Structure formats: structure tokens, C-alpha cells
Amino acid sequence: MCDTAQATAADASLSTPRQVQGSAVDPIALTPVDEVRVTILMDNTFDALLVGDGHTTRAGFGAADVPAGQFETDRTAVGLLAEHGFSALVAVRRGDSTTTLMFDAGLSPSGIVTNADRLGMRLDDLQGIVLSHGHFDHAGGLSGLSSKLGAMRMPMTVHPHAWTRRRLRGPQGIFDMPTLSKRALTAEGFEVIERSQPSLLVDGAVLITGEVDRTTEFEHGMPAAHEALAAGDWRHDPQVIDDQALVVNLKNQGLVILTGCGHAGVINIVRHAQRLTSVPRLHALLGGFHLSGPAFEPIIPPTVAALADYAPQLVAPGHCTGWRAQHALAAALPEAWVPSSSGTTHQLVRA
What we know:
- It comes from Actinacidiphila rubida.
- 18% of the residues lie in helices and 26% in strands.
- It has seven helices and 20 strands.
- A hairpin with a 3-residue loop joins strand 16 (246-250) and strand 17 (254-259).
């Protein structure tokens, strides 16, 4: 979510660096894992012609299994869906034990379940859901997931501010974003767990960051057009305070970090994960980097420079990263950068 509106000095002051509210455990003993598989269930793009490599598997068009009367067989192949949303399945293996979580749920009710079906993935193997933040393009598929799985008690980790009512005030008018309903999610069978501080899942092998420290000088959050309803008034909401990331410590390799939109700033997120875990090495950074549009393009150079200093082995930006940032990241990190696409699986293994 972004636009070209200019913030005032008062708006800018709201997004200056701050520390997370409340106590934090520092460091957190994050149990190293043997393997992490991240499958991009939904992203803004789908490219059936992308080629995989040693640690990346791509989805193609698949079998011709969709009815289409204009073809001689009355069938066609359609590949996967893409939409302005993000969702990933994260499978973490420790020895012979594997646990799969869903990180975000895409935009549309049918999107992630359709792609899972076409990929042949069983969503009833899920053992939990994490929402990176409350924006509707990361939670829209929850109703479709509930309909597919039926009655369940699926644990879902969210920040308490995920229920915040938000809108965009732009030159063409006001867009009221669909707002998540805790009541509706609970009625659908999700066991909602609200946490603003760091959470350890999967027997201590997966860290959910909670609120992220804002410590860089250049990541200032959302522009003035992004507003939230607070105490009956609409106010500039630069921080998207509910933004959180998923972190895994891959044995002998370093941190694997998955972001939804990275509203806290991806460098802030990396720093925060390093501080929480005392693991200095960044192995992989995947997800939305939110560097798209005139409001964010000025911070592309310092973001890319800071990320290059970490020398990650894999950088797979998608969703809201934007084409200018993609080009810059590909140029600065040619061995690490991998284009994202719905249906891509990244398999990362311990050294």
C-alpha cells in the first residue's frame, strides 16, 4: 500500500526511530533447524517459464485439466494464480520432524486454496498460521482456507493491532481497506493468539518477531495517505505497528527471514532479528520489501547497500517490492537475487 502523498514535518516525527514498547527477551535461544522449505503460495506474479536451480523449484503450467471448449480435448492448462497479495508455506525440519506453518493468506478468498490444489499441496497438514500484519491483501484467503478445511482449531498468531481500521487517502478519493474481524475468525474455527512481543513456535525453532525496533535513519514507514482510526479520529499511520516477520535459524548457515510487506523496513527487521537471536549472519531474506512507488523509491539505494553488506546467500523479494528495487537488488546481489513467482519453492539446507 503506497502513494505519492508528501508527509509534513509532524507526520515525519511519528516515524522516527523508536524502541519496541514493553519488555523483550534478549537474546532468544532460537533452536537451529536442519532444513527450511518456503513455498510461495501466492504472489503478485506467476511466470511459468522461470527456471529453477539447486535450491529453487518452479511451478509450470501443469496438466491440461481445466475445462475449455475451444480446445480439441476440451481442456487447457492454466498454471497458478497471481494477485496483489502474499502467502507462503514454511516447512521447518528438525531431524525427522517437520512442521508446516502458513505465513499470510493472500488477497482473495479462493486464491491460496486454488494454488494449493494445483500444486498438489495438502493444507490439512498445516499446524498454524502467522499473519505479518492486518492489511487485507495478506488475510483475504482465510475464509477460503476455513471453507476447505472445515471445523478446526487452527492456532493463528497475530499482533493486537491487526484489527485496526485503516484507509488510503489519495488524489482519486478515499479507499477504506477491509478490516479483519477477530469475531469472524474465531467463529470460523481459528484460535487467535494476540502477541505484540516476540513469540517462539515449533518447539523454539520459529521466531515471530512481534513489534520491530525502528533503528535505521532512512526507513520511515508509510506516507501521509495511509491513515488509521484511533480514538475516533483518522490519523497518519506511518508505522503499521503490527508488522512482524518470521525467523528461522538454519544450522551453520544463519538466519532465514520471511517478511509480508516489511512495513517496519527490511533492514530494521534484519537488525531486530539479529538482536533478538544473537545470530549475526543473514542467510536468506524473502517476501515483500515495500519499496514500490515514489514514496519509497528514494530509500532503495540505502536499503540495497545495507542488504549487500550482509552478503546473504538468497534474496527473493516479491509482492510490494517494486520493479525499480528488483532491478537494483539484482544488480547489487547477482548471485543471491532470485525472482519471485507464485508456486516457487526455496529449499534451504544446513551446511
